[in-house]
Amino acid sequence: MHILLIEDDLDLGQALLSALQLEAFSVQWLRRAADAPVKLDDPACSAVLLDLGLPDGSGLALLQRWRAAQSRTPILVITARGALDERLTGLDAGADDYLVKPFEIPELVARLRAVLRRSAAQAGETWQFGALALLPRRSQALLEGQPLDLTPREYQLLLALAEGGGEVVDKATLAQRLEPLGEAVDTAALQVHLSNLRRKIGAERIGTLRGVGYWLESL
């Protein structure tokens, strides 16, 4: 899973970068509002960690702009602004969660995982799709209780389909997710990885909308 971190504090940013990488996330770290994307439409991005107090602008303005553009990417606000009205403003603007500084990094990681679970319509740490189960914290997939021998790209592809929560995930998103920093593989390579994944989990578990994308079935 790829996280966009927007945080200007060097010490906290470095601590978050290291902690998230240890949890098997890939991370892009930005420190200024001006460097943030105008639209939050990168299909490789699983979630955003957003500081509201940036040196050159407002994180709240970024949040409002992204939600006005109909972005559905989960956003977890991390900020020193802890007053009730400020928390309510952040949540009403579209934040999926709001964590006040100072905080313990394990709590942030747990809240981030909870936001990602809600986005994928999953209730627990194990994401269940019929006989297929994913354990994102361990980067592992099980079929009928038995571990699947997946390559890193096959696992990332399966995880991207799982995050779709049963809805169609377009080809561009899947291609982007096969690279940790969002550099898409070509269509031919995507088809190869999909074919290999289908062979390992059962072709019937991946539905196809021809010319558009794929979804994960709960069988």
UniProtKB/TrEMBL annotation:
Keyword terms, alphabetized: DNA-binding, Phosphoprotein, Transcription, Transcription regulation
Pfam (any one): Response_reg
Any one cellular-component term (Gene Ontology): protein-DNA complex
Modification type 4-aspartylphosphate: residues: D51
Domain Response regulatory: 2-116
Top-rank taxon, per record: Bacteria
Matching SUPFAM superfamilies: C-terminal effector domain of the bipartite response regulators, CheY-like
Stored Gene3D superfamilies: 3.40.50.2300, 6.10.250.690, Winged helix-like DNA-binding domain superfamily/Winged helix DNA-binding domain
GO-annotated biological processes: regulation of DNA-templated transcription
GO molecular function, one term: transcription cis-regulatory region binding
Residue ranges of every copy of the OmpR/PhoB-type domain listed in the record: 124-218
Entries under InterPro entries matching the protein: CheY-like_superfamily, OmpR/PhoB-type_DNA-bd, Sig_transdc_resp-reg_C-effctor, Sig_transdc_resp-reg_receiver, WalR-like, WH-like_DNA-bd_sf
Chain residues forming the annotated DNA-binding region: 124-218
Family matches, as PANTHER family: REGULATOR OF RPOS (PTHR48111), TRANSCRIPTIONAL REGULATORY PROTEIN TCTD (PTHR48111:SF67)
Protein name (database record): Response regulator transcription factor
Species of origin: Inhella proteolytica
